[in-house]
């Protein structure tokens, strides 16, 4: 197969073998779920329920008037026992609704089929996606109804589904394509109708040959949809890099995929859209890969949102050996956890557990000016320069060097022989510059 790719990038050890052959497995219904009212980029939701209320699975329990937001739904049936601040995976606090499950998982009356692509208008489909609380399930959690609402001054002709799953260890998108290919394609066709796009592509890396075969067979009679084999390289699944690889268009600096007529969505997001249309099911569960040397039985689980990390780990046999680190997401872009007593949410694509002897402790050394970070940066930035500017609060220069073009893939930190935490400083620089811009706007 002739594979496509982008320039730069890195080749980490992928280590997907532990779960690549493991089918998606339904996790047990937890006795209690803690459901944060902000599981998306945008405005947080306000609670629509009170302590003591009885709720059903799929019932809306949080919403916002803001366009850039996504409703929150109960993932189990039971009783609301608390509404208040909780710690989340990123270390912040947010308001959450805690529900004690009754064990029945009774569905709310609103969970019913909404129609089909042919009979529903583009706006009706967008409304369904919005009401279902669907967000990008690749990890970014941007509200999907916003992404598919194309502004009047833009014209979208192409939708690309991201089946690259380029992060090491993670395999849920791979399994989804193998086990639910028809749902993937149906969701893609729905996105194409919502955006009025004529062409659809599914980009899949060559380390998933079975998924490429299955998806090609599924779209065999779809003249406007093609499967694009991609080289195995990180970050192949990043939006801008995926667009370049699939259709050879370059998103301009500071621009969005819409600027080149493209909308990109994740494989899991497409399946969630299918479920919302065909079954009326809001986003109350998602898939997650739980793997690493520090877990007894690595699995790909389908879990109820709000389940605690430690409960999911326990369903995989629990911890093994001397635990050294738990990472939420993939090893390149994931966040190390201070505790597993936090809820898994719409953005939880992976839970990686490593034993202590796998974790290298090191102190950063001085930059040797090898320029490897520049060589691998997929958006052609100068990571070491941005890092140094951030360390000394040189705000104007951060903007001059296009810091917001950074996609935070971590390739620079990965390749640096001096072990300088380049991405850490770049993220800090972004925060400093954002705060300064807000201050100037006041």
Automatic annotation (TrEMBL):
[4Fe-4S] cluster 1 binds at residues 367, 370, 373, 416. InterPro entries: 4Fe4S_Fe-S-bd, 4Fe4S_Fe_S_CS, Ion_transpt_RnfC/RsxC, Nuo51_FMN-bd, Nuo51_FMN-bd_sf, RnfC_N, Soluble_ligand-bd. One of its GO terms (cellular component) is plasma membrane. SUPFAM superfamilies: alpha-helical ferredoxin, Nqo1 FMN-binding domain-like. Its cofactor is [4Fe-4S] cluster. Binds 2 [4Fe-4S] clusters per subunit. Its EC number is 7.-.-.-. It is a peripheral membrane protein. GO terms for molecular function: 4 iron, 4 sulfur cluster binding; electron transfer activity; metal ion binding. Keywords: 4Fe-4S, Cell membrane, Electron transport, Iron, Iron-sulfur, Membrane, Metal-binding, Repeat, Translocase, Transport. [4Fe-4S] cluster 2 binds at residues 377, 406, 409, 412. It is found in: Cell membrane. GO terms for biological process: electron transport chain. Residues 355-387, 394-426 form the 4Fe-4S ferredoxin-type domain. HAMAP family: RsxC_RnfC. The complex is composed of six subunits: RnfA, RnfB, RnfC, RnfD, RnfE and RnfG. Part of a membrane-bound complex that couples electron transfer with translocation of ions across the membrane. Belongs to the 4Fe4S bacterial-type ferredoxin family. RnfC subfamily. This is Ion-translocating oxidoreductase complex subunit C.
